[in-house]
Amino acid sequence: MNVVIPAVNWSVIGPELILSLMAMLLLLVNVLAKKAAGGVIPYLSLAGVIIALFFCISLWGQSQYAFNRMVVQDNYSLFFKIIFLITAGLSILMSIRFLKREGFEYGEYYVLLLFATVGMMLMASAADLIIIFLGLETFSLAIYVLAGFFRTQPKSNEASLKYFLLGAFSTGFLLYGIALIYGATGTTHLKGIYQFVSKIHFLTDPLLLIGMGLLIVGFGFKVASVPFHMWTPDVYEGAPTSVTAFMSVGAKAAGFAAFLRVFLYSMSSLQADWVWILWVLAVLTMTLGNLVAIAQKNIKRMLAYSSIAHAGYILVAMVAASELSTASILYYLLAYAFMNLGAFGVVILYGRKGEENILINDYSGMASKYPLLAAAMAIFMFSLAGIPPTAGFVGKFYIFSAAIKAGYIGLAIIGVLNSALSVYFYLRVTVMMYMRNPEKEQAPLEMCPALVVALVIAVFGTLQMGIIPSQYLNLARQSILALM
Amino acid sequence: MNQAAFPILTLITFFPLLGAVVLLFLNKENKETIRRVTLVVTLLEFIFSLPLFFNFRLDTAAMQFVEKVPWIPEYGVTYHLGIDGISLFLVLLTTLLTFVSVMACWKDIQDKVREFMICLLFLETGMIGVFASLDLFLFYVFWEVMLIPMYLLIGIWGNPKRRIYAAVKFFIYTMVGSVLMLVAILVLYFHNGAATGKYTFDLLQLYNFQVPKDIQVWLFLAFGLAFAIKVPMFPFHTWLPDAHTEAPTVGSVLLAAVLLKMGTYGFLRFSIPLFPQASFQLVPLISILALIGIIYGALVCMVQKDLKRLIAFSSVSHLGFVMLGLFALNMQGIQGGILQMLNHGFSTGALFLLVGMIYERRHTRMIEDFGGLWKQMPIFAAFFIVVTLSSIGLPGLNGFVGEFLILVGTFKSTGIYAVIAATGIILAAAYMLWMYQRVMFGEVTKEENKALKDLSGREILVLSCVTLFIFWIGIYPQTFLSRMEPTVKSYIVQVNTKYQAGLKLQGGEKLQVAQAKQNSESRSQNPE
Q1: What is the pLDDT of residues A371-387, one digit of tens each?
Q2: Closest-CA residue in chain B for A394?
Q3: Which of the ends of chain B has fewer CB neighbours closer than 10 A, N or C?
Q4: Is residue B322 part of a domain?
Q5: Within a domain: residue B72?
Q6: Do A212 and A270 contact (CB within 8 A), yes or no?
Q7: Rounded to two decimals, what is the model's pTM?
Q8: What is the span of the domain harbouring residue B485?
Q9: Residue B358 falls within a domain, yes or no?
Q10: For an interface test with A, which of B169, B183, B239 has the most A Cβ atoms less than 10 Å from its Cβ?
Q11: B11 occurs within a structural domain
Q12: Is A247 exposed, middle or buried (0-12, 13-18, 19+ CB in 10 A)?
């Protein structure tokens, strides 16, 4: 009997394969050498990430399909994969000492992190709704476990359970939406849906309408947009800070990767139907995120609400729905990766065993004792607020110019006013650091080299993307052509 | 356009930043070394800026010392620097006053000296960048960047009680105006691109674009809000008294002398030439707000108990004069406005320096705590009276030249405004002289005042640098006016031409619409 194995274009999922293999290898290492969790496992996982990164860069510019045209590899997916790999790399660097300090030094952490990254990358290369779901579930499950990693801390357990329950529920919505769209169009393939939908002149099919709505709910949950955001502050606060850092950037970027592909490509001809929903979501998300962040006393919760607000800015660009806006979203997510990971990195570095120092008031007087650390935090805060010459400013500039070009001037005005509003709570951190005296005596910080390297990379990225943005803007521009 | 052979503007803009980097390597305990290094850096900076003055060509009205390099070409953003008669003196004012400030804060700032000097140098870069930028994106970057060091200066080294409140208020207030200006910049960018096919942020190219009338007013208001907050114009002035009173002496000096000028400079460089129809249409609005600022500012000054707050409100009043002059939109008005910008920089800067000196001795700024100081500190009294009279506008000193030109220009355009503004001069004399009398004249009533030391050599040097210009501009203003004249002349011609062209375009459009209506009417009548 002849078994015919279909020819598979493995290089399309090359980066995912590399990371999966590395993760499985790490599982073995973890079993065989228990102590390795503190030693070689993190660096092996980092090596895997770097190899995958080089692989991605080598694939740049090519466009190919695999697995019966269900998985695609184009510049768009490569750009996102690079974002995920940078996120994973920086998170690994930040986790090494953190886990040791908190006493949860297990190798499974890095394995789960790598698997989560694989899921995110798969979601970015998906050309089919089923693959989107597959990628979504892969990284979601990994993050559910990671959020509860500090299993003796009740907050961590609460975060994990909340995320799991709400996540499972919203994935149900997503799946139901996929099923309805399949029922309406006859295919789950994105290109097939695009071809079907572009022939429709008046959208009256209730299956398609409800399917779109459910998809928006599903994706909206993942990217933490209002009113699907309620899980974000509790999960971000309860999860271990390095996991929070990872998921605040990675999960959001993955969600947007799929969101953009489905709505700005497949559903692009039905723009008039869904764009107003996103308009309302964008305004609500930005405004609520910024307003509630003002009231926060805990820095992790403040950063959680700030990440909700940033999802709002990206939704503004989605409303604009043009080539320029897609490029701006790509640029913004890369900038967001650097500045958000940097901010969480400082939060990790500033904590000590037993007292995590996560109240904003605990940051008072940091500048007098740790001037460089305070300067780094200030750079991240200014970048998140959108003040030049940082990446955050150029990103917001790019997004609002896309919105204005598409004619949504009211939305742009709401966006910039929200930006000005957000300055208050970002500035509050710098006020604490620079303008107040230290409130309590604290033990000296342990400067672990890996974390310092991560912070240096984040600062460098934030400033370089802000001062010489040209090459990054070009990369973002090249990455959307395949999508459109 | 005069391309510069040597990138002198880039040097002047970024040299302070280089100095700040050098300071990072110094040990923070070496306070004297830090101060000396900063002094040398700012002195060199001032010397570097002198060639701008001496090599300034009087035969051309175009931008000089131009540097233009593409920065983000896909977007049309260029690194475009250049100065003309309007910005030349503002740049020189900045470099001179930063140098003077370093000398002034020698004894004042005792902790975190290195960080203070770094902030100061960073601020200088931002300020010069704002005045030299000829690209809207670059201008916006410098405009926002300049907020950070000022915010830190007020918040860290200001008066402990309310400095954080003042700093945050300053930052957010200015930021709200700026972000609306960002939206306006983008709208202008896209309209220009759609109309001419060339997407650019370059100011000189955008000058040629006739903005459609309906959006022109909105764009003018959006830009205008950002600048009006900066000037500050009534009713957006409420951040100023807090920021000025709570800031350290040097912070107040730079805030008053340079930062406030960015608002008026912005109106002159951006709002009026980009949106001439809207400007002409809104002259009454701006002029009335300016007049309210003059009179209200002066009246509020009369009841102030705190010296710094009094001078802060007097800034509102003086800059009302500048706005009035600028929006007279004629030769005398604009020249007077620019000159008065300089004058205000010198006289109010000097006033803050003087108040700072007295605060260092007595640690109070309340007028009632003083009295009879002229006997203890005669040199101080002499400088103080000179600066007070300059602020009032006594002939022979700088204030008179500026105010006179402004009043002449305003009278030419709308007589009644000049009449009302002139009462502002009377009020200025009232509050300033009354304040001087309470502080300096009379008998020494408070014990602490009996042992005050007069000015030290350093303080005399600081004040002399500024007073020199007070006399120079007052006695021989031609040095300054001659360099402004070609630019202002061509500026007025440019604005008027664009305004007329815009009217014709509008008229042409109206004519076309009317003709189309006529045609359709005649066609509808024909079948019948």
Answers
A1: 888 899 999 999 999 98
A2: B141
A3: C
A4: yes
A5: no
A6: yes
A7: 0.89
A8: 284-493
A9: yes
A10: B183
A11: no
A12: buried
